[in-house]
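Thread amino acids onto this structure.
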């Protein structure tokens, strides 16, 4: 039976998760994470999307992105295939790096939009890698603390709902009080 096509329209927002095949690591070192971010930027140049939040874990990634002119399937195909080729060449591996298709959830409300960003930023806390999301180097959380876009992410739209970066930080930290429920 063919897969159901993903819902797409210009301006659609998604929480994307891509996992390593059999939950294996997709990042073996910081150079791999930098390479992934490089491919993310290349993909953004070709397919014009807005990245609102991200987190690169060891065996999976979280992206909160908004499409403009191209379907999410084109964006994720380019990004995941480019990174997989790069990873396999660098580490002399063969075969699939990612476990099946990426998982996507269409974002349909402001509450879901902000809660997804919080979830993404709390992922390293939930995994017991850090106690505070600000300690994790491979997420967009620091751009939210500063309150300005950086090379990879634009936190402006999410921060708009909180008026200040400090209010967003409090929102995220309130979520960490209930981390076992995520």
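Threaded sequence (182 positions):
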């Amino acid at each position: 039976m063919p897969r159901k096509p993903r819902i797409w329209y210009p301006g659609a927002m998604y929480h994307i998760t891509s996992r390593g095949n059999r939950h294996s690591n997709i990042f073996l070192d910081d150079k791999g994470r930098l390479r992934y971010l490089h491919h993310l930027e290349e993909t953004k140049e070709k397919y014009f999307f807005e990245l609102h939040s991200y987190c690169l874990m060891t065996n999976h990634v979280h992206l909160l992105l908004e499409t403009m002119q191209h379907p999410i399937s084109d964006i994720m195909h380019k990004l995941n295939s480019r990174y997989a080729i790069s990873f396999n060449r660098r580490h002399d591996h063969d075969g699939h790096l990612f476990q099946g298709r990426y998982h996507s959830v269409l974002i349909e409300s402001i509450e879901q939009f902000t809660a997804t960003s919080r979830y993404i930023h709390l992922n390293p806390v939930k995994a017991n890698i850090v106690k505070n999301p600000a300690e994790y180097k491979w997420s967009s959380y620091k751009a939210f603390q500063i309150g300005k876009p950086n090379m990879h992410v634009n936190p402006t739209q999410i921060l708009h709902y909180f008026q200040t970066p400090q209010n967003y930080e409090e929102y995220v930290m309130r979520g960490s009080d209930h981390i076992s429920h995520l």
